[in-house]
Amino acid sequence: MQWKEFLEGPWTLDRASDAWNPWEMMTTLGAATESLKDFRILIVDDEESNAEALCKLLHRAGYRDVEFEKDPREASKRFAEFRPDLLVLDLHMPHLDGFGVMDAVRPHRGEGEYFPILVLTGDLDDDIRTRALAEGAKDFLTKPFEASEVLLRIKTLLETRSLHLELQKQNRKLEVRVMDRTRALYDAQTEILFRLALAAEYRDDVTGQHAERVGILSALIAGELGLSEDAIALIRRAAPLHDVGKIGIPDSILMKRSALTPSEFEVVRSHVDIGAKILSGGSFELLRMAEVIARTHHERWDGGGYKGMAGEDIPLVGRIVAVADVYDVITSDRPYKQAMSREKAVARIQQDEGAHFDPAVVASFLSVVESGRLDGIRRVMPATMFSGRHELVTPQQIVAPS
């Protein structure tokens, strides 16, 4: 029985004779399940009577949202507006055939999603069938066809789409969970490293702010140098670990108020090696950058630093932190000295341009000074870093004082 004949009914069930009722068969085998009833179906067929009959068949089967388009040239627009879950498509149409329609609607389909196209054709040619499947069709029916077969194939295609949509939904949930877990892990790593930096600062910086200020200023300088947002964020987190090696320096030397002897100064110099060793072998980029900073932030542009590196042989992150560290140290009170004024400290940095410091880094530092953000760093810092849990201050939070 073909689907046009199928619709001619009415059909009744003679219970006494158990007469076969095709509508009962359809309800049992091809009718839409509750989960499929709201799936949208678009029919594109230039023969309006065929499309209307198919719409009627689908409505009777329980599908609530079925539309048809008789002009294949309008199919793409109709597809974009209707956003169907299934396209039922005739291949042989005037002006634009079914292959042209498949090409036209392709940009409106979600990338990587399973979208079923059911092709209706009276052409039994194997090449046509192969091309239809290659162009994106998931199944096809040869005219004339059985109404029950149409319903069963449509139901199967929609069930498959439903499973794919559910799988996508579950994948998105998993992606969110993975992102949340990754973020939590990253935050935990950052906080552990933050505490490690505080431990190094505990003895000669009673506020614990020095490491954080160096991190913020280093990130601001990196921004002026044109580094990427990812690199800036990484420097912001890695730079506070520049002096982690001070953990291995005795208090008698680190806290000494008088001038250091040459042998004592050699002990102080060893903090770069101690810090690099503590941070070495890291499996993630933050630790690897922190290791480089710990090892190279006391190098000089002219080669007169701890390890004798010079110019661009010194990693850029080490050159950046060198400026940020020296500026913050000379503007902060220490057991062995009083703080220098901002103006004198900036002049000191300028004076050492090309000798101690990379000229490009100094120029970027001066841009931060001129913008007023240098004065904004201390305003956003808590009174002490040793109490409670503090949110990471980002470069974006640093603004010039009003």
Brief digest:
This protein is mainly α and 402 residues long. It has helices at residues 3-6, 22-29, 48-60, 75-82, 98-105, 126-134, 147-201, 209-224, 229-238, 251-254, 262-269, 271-279, 285-296, 316-330, 342-351, 359-371, 373-380, and strands at residues 40-44, 65-69, 86-90, 117-121, 139-142. The chain is built from 17 helices and five strands.
Protein described:
With 402 residues, the chain is mainly alpha-helical. The protein folds into 2 domains: 3-171, Rossmann fold, CATH 3.40.50; 186-397, Orthogonal Bundle (Hypothetical protein af1432), CATH 1.10.3210. Helix content is 52%, strand content 6%. The protein contains 17 helices and 5 strands. The chain has helices spanning 3-6, 22-29, 48-60, 75-82, 98-105, 126-134, 147-201, 209-224, 229-238, 251-254, 262-269, 271-279, 285-296, 316-330, 342-351, 359-371, 373-380, and strands spanning 40-44, 65-69, 86-90, 117-121, 139-142. A 5-stranded parallel sheet has the order 2-1-3-4-5, with helices on both faces. The longest helix is centred in the middle third of the chain and has 55 residues, at 147-201. The radius of gyration is 36 Å and the shape is rod-shaped. The termini are far apart.
Describe the protein's topology.
Blueprint: H1 3-6, H2 22-29, E1 40-44, H3 48-60, E2 65-69, H4 75-82, E3 86-90, H5 98-105, E4 117-121, H6 126-134, E5 139-142, H7 147-201, H8 209-224, H9 229-238, H10 251-254, H11 262-269, H12 271-279, H13 285-296, H14 316-330, H15 342-351, H16 359-371, H17 373-380
